[in-house]
Amino acid sequence: MDTIARHRQDQRPDTVLKVDSVVTRFGQDVIHDGVSFTVGRGEVAALIGGSGTGKSVLLKEVIGLLRPTGGTVNLLGTDVWNCEPEEMNALRRRFGMLFQDGALFSSLSVAENIAVPFRENTNLPAGMIPPLVGFKLALVGLEPDTGRKTPAQLSGGMRKRVALARALTLDPEMLFLDEPTSGLDPINARAFDDLVRVLSDSLGLTVFIVTHDLDTLRSIVDRVIVLAEGKVIADGPVDTVMKLDDPWVKEYFSARTHVA
Amino acid sequence: MDTAASWIQQEVENGTSVLYLTGAWRLANLAAISDALRSLGLRVSKNFVLDGSRLQELDTAAGFTLYRHLAELGCTQTMVSVRGFDGRHERLLALVHQRMTCPPAASKSVHPGMVRRIGAATLNVWHLLTAHVAFVGSIALEVFGLAREPRRFRVSETASQFETICIDAIPIAALVTFLIGVVIAYLLGIQAQRYGANIFVVDGVGLAVCRELSPLLVAVIIAGRSGAAFTAQIGTMKVQEEIDAISTLGLSPIQVLVIPRLVAIIVALPLLVFVGDLTGIAGGMLVSALQLGISVTTFVDRLHSVLPMSALMVGLVKAPVFAAFIAVIACRMGMQVARDARSVGINTTSTVVQSVVWVILLDAIFAVIFERLDI
After folding, report:
1. Strands laid side by side in the A70-75 sheet
2. N or C: fewer beta carbons within 10 Å in chain A?
3. Which residues in chain B touch residue A136, judged by CB atoms under 8 angstroms apart?
């Protein structure tokens, strides 16, 4: 607790995520060729790009799951790829990650899934955990009754909400979402977007979304970062990026507008 | 530091209770905060004002604990007002207050009694057995369907299954039976040598390997190797909705997945048992030559006169029956997988356990039958 508290007090930069000239190579394939961008506190930023441009790879590099070939990642004041294991563990408690299909532990009930971070990372008395779990479920708009179900019994939308509740258990400062609305119907997708926005506004969360969903971009995102051919080709508010003179960006936004 | 005063203070201003929140109201301090709240001994008599002007930090867990405590005292939403919080904390509190309207029920885990658990387990076994029988029925129906339309039989799938079940398993089956042949010959040899009855080791090894050991061991190996693989393959396909896709394309999952495996394993197991017979006897032969002074020619000669054809056949007849049980259990457990990763593991384990138990049970039944028939 002391380390966490210290981090919080002496490091309050306005930039919470700084990706600096990240290079990724898999054998001969160059995935990222010097990717740099920053995300400020309280921002809701989205990363977009065509298939195979390495969005998910970049996300893994940012949260410390996959080491980039070169470059640095600074997340919440910690150099992710150049720090002590204890620092990394302290950092892991300060951000939450929502995996694409939820990645709920299938052997645990919904309530137990949400209780995992409480049990593993805090020393709360056992009696205090169930009410908190119930509250986290309510926070993401689920009935307390959902806690008794197993992940296999949930619909796709509910699974994402439970995964969001699990990502939010330790009240992280930053939340990473990997394709949060994929596989959801438009109504559920919009409801999920609204939920993310409400939570980020109320809790002062910084949110970093990897997404394909144009509606998500239009409704809740402050800033868009476009990844193409291993580089960031655009970075700015949605309206500005939309007007950009780049073939991929043009096609992306026009294609989706027609469908919508 | 962990006293009530460091987290919350109650002051009365103009007849209203004002609760001043102090310090870092965070998850890490939740136990202390909770104690502080309780030791404050609040009573609901009038309205409360929460003052956040001395607050440093606030998160949802701490906000929830505060509101929950007030709610437990009987405070309604209207009785609590806030002031002096910075914008972010005020929004957080508002969200917490709004979302916690329904008091979350503590999930009670039910611990059923001994009798109930025995009953449930018995019923489970019963359901498992009846479902296996039903599955055999649906396989039989599909087999009849195939008999009418033989060209729907999947030859190449069956052949590829045969390769993995039989050809790929030859080394392991040969190794295990060879070692068992060595062990049997060695142990028998120690006893036989005392009476100068070395040559009877040949009788013992031949009969034991061909009649019992080779079929049993090979069946257990195949149950662990191919039975587990069947369940895992079919189970994973179930998780990925591939089984549903097969049905949607107008195909029968039993015809596509189960029958090729069933046929392949029924053909493969007797062949593997025969390989096991040969290597088991070879193991016995090796020990006899090195340890007991029985030359290879003498061994073969003796084996020829003492090992009846029926002993070999008994072993080979048991094999397809074992195979059919393993295939039916394995395929059914695969089909029965629920849509999550964990259940693939559980069902695979269950397949191996059930198959091995059935193989041994069937072996015992066969022993009784053959004894009655004087074979």
Report:
1. A29-40, A15-26, A70-75, A78-79
2. C
3. 60
DSSP lists the bridge partners of residue B19 as B10, B50
Per-residue pLDDT of chain B (375 residues; tens, 9 = 90+): 444 457 888 888 777 788 888 888 888 888 888 888 888 777 776 678 888 888 888 888 888 888 888 888 777 777 788 888 888 788 888 888 877 765 544 445 567 889 999 999 999 999 999 999 999 999 999 999 899 988 889 999 999 999 999 999 999 999 999 999 999 999 999 999 999 889 999 999 999 999 999 999 999 999 999 999 999 999 999 988 899 888 888 888 999 999 999 999 999 999 999 999 999 999 999 999 999 999 999 999 999 999 999 999 999 999 999 999 999 999 999 999 987 778 899 999 999 999 999 999 999 999 999 999 987
Select the residue of B28, B88, B338 nearest A204 (Cβ to Cβ): B88
Q: Torsion angle, CA of B66/B68/B74/B78, rounded to 10 degrees?
A: 70
ipTM of the complex as predicted:
0.72
> If you count them, how many residues does chain A have?
260
* pLDDT in the model for residue B235: 95
- Could you tell me if A185 and A153 are in contact, meaning their C-beta atoms sit under 8 angstroms apart? no
Per-residue model confidence (pLDDT) at position B200: 93
* Size of the A and B interface in Cβ pairs below 8 Å: 96
Q: Does B309 touch chain A (CB under 8 A)?
A: no
For CA atoms B53, B54, B60, B65, give the dihedral sign: negative
Q: At what angle do helices B259-287 and B296-306 cross, to 10 degrees?
A: 130
- Indicate the residue of B92, B339, B343 with minimum beta-carbon distance to A202: B92
Contact A241, A224 (CB under 8 A): yes
User: Collapsing DSSP states into helix, strand and coil, what is residue B353?
Assistant: helix
Nearest to B60 among A139, A147, A152 (CB): A139
Q: Give the integer Cα–Cα distance in Å for B259 and A4.
A: 60
Residue B239 to chain A, least CA–CA distance (Å): 10
Q: Which of residues 27-66 of B touch A (CB under 8 A)?
A: 27-31, 34, 57, 59-61, 64-65
Asked if the Cβ–Cβ distance from B104 to A133 is below 8 Å, we say yes
Instruction: Say which of A8, A152, A168 has its CB closest to residue B339.
Output: A152
Query: In angstroms, what CA-CA distances link B167 with B180, B213, B222?
Result: 21, 20, 12
Class at the top of the CATH hierarchy for domain B4-99: alpha beta
| From-to residues of CATH 3.30.750.24 in chain B | 4-99
Q: Is the dihedral of CA A168, A174, A179, A182 positive or negative?
A: positive
With an 8 Å Cβ cutoff, are B28 and A5 in contact? yes
Query: Is B104 within 8 Å of A130 when comparing Cβ atoms?
Result: yes
* Residue B298, CA distances (Å) to B187, B208, B292 in order: 20, 19, 12
